[in-house]
Amino acid sequence: MSLDFAALDYSFNETIGVRVGRVKHAFGLYGESQDLDMVRPFAFLPLDFYSKLLRPIDSSFDGTAVYGNVRLGKGSIEYQVYAGWVPAIDTKNPFFAGLDEASPITTSSINTLFVYGGSAIWNTPLEGLRLSASVTLIPKVRFDGAMRTASSLALATSDARLLPSYFPPGAWDFAVAGKPASLETTVNNYYFSAEYTRGDWVFAIETSFIDGDQTSSLSLLGTSESKSKSDSSYAMVTYQASKKLQLGTYYGLAHANRDDPNGSKLVAVPSHIDWLKDFAVASSYNLAPWWLLKAEVHLLNGTKGLSAKGNGDAAKWKADWTYITVKTTVSF
C-alpha cells in the first residue's frame, strides 16, 4: 500500500493558494486528474504521454505548490509552480521494474529525486478553449546497482545486449557482471497542450519533449556521457452520448530518439522498439452514480515501452499488436 495524495491546502484568495504535503504533479492537461475514472471514457490515457512505467516518479511529490487563477478581463490564467522530492521508489515496483530491461545495470537503489517546475493554462476568450504549457525539471537522478550477467543482457530490450560480445567468451561474467555501476542523469520535460470543449464534445491535443544528459559509470567499461531526446504526442476526441454513456478515441505517436525516429541505428533489436503508434477506441457506462464500467481496444504499431515480462525475447517481437481492456470502478 502506498500514499498517493495528502496535502494541506490554503487559498488566500482566487489569485494565490498554497499546498503542502504529498502533492499531485501538475503536467499537461491531465497530470493531476489522470486517475479520476469518472471524468473520461478511457481506462488508459495515451500510454507514452501518461506513462504507467513512470507512475512511481510522476504521480506526486513531497513538497510545496503555489497556485492561483489570474483574471485577464476576457479569460484567465491558471498557474502552478512547485518544488519537492519524489517519494522513495521501490525498485521492485512492477511499473518501474520494466525500465531496467534496456539497461546494462540491475538497479538496487535510487537517490531521492528533487523535482521542480510549473504549469500555466490560459482559458482563452473563446469559450471552451484552453491552452497549456508546463515544464518539469529533475536536475539529478542517480541509479546505483550492479552490472548484469551475459545471459541477462542477451534478453535486453536494447543494443546493450551486444556488450558481452566485445569480450572473450566467459570474460564478461568473470570481470564485469556483478560489479558496482551507476547511471546519473538530468531530465527536462516540456509539455504543450490545447483543449476545446463544445457542448458534449471535447477535443484535445498534447505534445511533449523529454531531454536528458546521462553520465554512465559501468565498471571496466569506464565512464561515458550521452544525451537523450524523446517525444510523445496525441490527439483525442470524446463525446458524451447520453447521461450514462461516454465515447472516445485517440491516436498517439511517440519516439524514443528524436534524432532517429525510425530506429535505423539499432542493431540487435528491431527498429520498432524506438517508436509507438497507438490508436484507441473506448466507451464508459455508468451502471449507477457510483459504479462505472469501461471497455477499450488499442491497435498499436511499435513496441516502445513494452516490457519483456510475459512477452518473450524482444528480438522476436512483431511491430503490430493489440490489447483490449475492461475496467470497472466503484467510487465512494
Summarize the structure.
With 332 residues, the chain is mainly beta. The protein is built from four helices and 14 strands.
Helical content class: under 10%
What sequence of helices (H) and strands (E) makes up the elements?
A: EEHEEHEEEHHEEEEEEE
CATH class: Mainly Beta
Q: Work out the radius of gyration.
A: 22 Å
Number of domains: 1
Would you tell me the structural class of the helices and strands?
Answer: mainly beta
Distance between the termini: 18 Å
CATH topology: Porin
- The overall average pLDDT, rounded, is 91
Using the 3D structure, state the CATH architecture: Beta Barrel
pLDDT under 50 segments (min length 5)? none
Query: How many DSSP-defined strands?
Result: 14
Largest sheet: 14 strands, antiparallel
Hey, roughly how much beta strand do the residues contain?
Answer: over 45%
Overall outline: globular
Number of H/I helices: 4
Reconstruct the topology from this structure:
Layout: E1 6-11, E2 17-24, H1 55-58, E3 60-71, E4 76-86, H2 94-97, E5 105-110, E6 113-123, E7 129-147, H3 150-153, H4 171-175, E8 180-198, E9 201-218, E10 223-240, E11 245-255, E12 275-288, E13 291-301, E14 320-330
Describe the structure.
By secondary structure, this protein is mainly beta. It has one domain (6-330): Porin (Beta Barrel), CATH 2.40.160. It has four helices and 14 strands. It has helices spanning 55-58, 94-97, 150-153, 171-175; strands at 6-11, 17-24, 60-71, 76-86, 105-110, 113-123, 129-147, 180-198, 201-218, 223-240, 245-255, 275-288, 291-301, 320-330. Strands 1, 2, 3, 4, 5, 6, 7, 8, 9, 10, 11, 12, 13 and 14 form a 14-stranded antiparallel sheet that branches. Strand 10 and strand 11 form a beta hairpin. The longest helix has 5 residues, at 171-175. The chain starts with 5 loop residues before the first strand and ends with a strand.
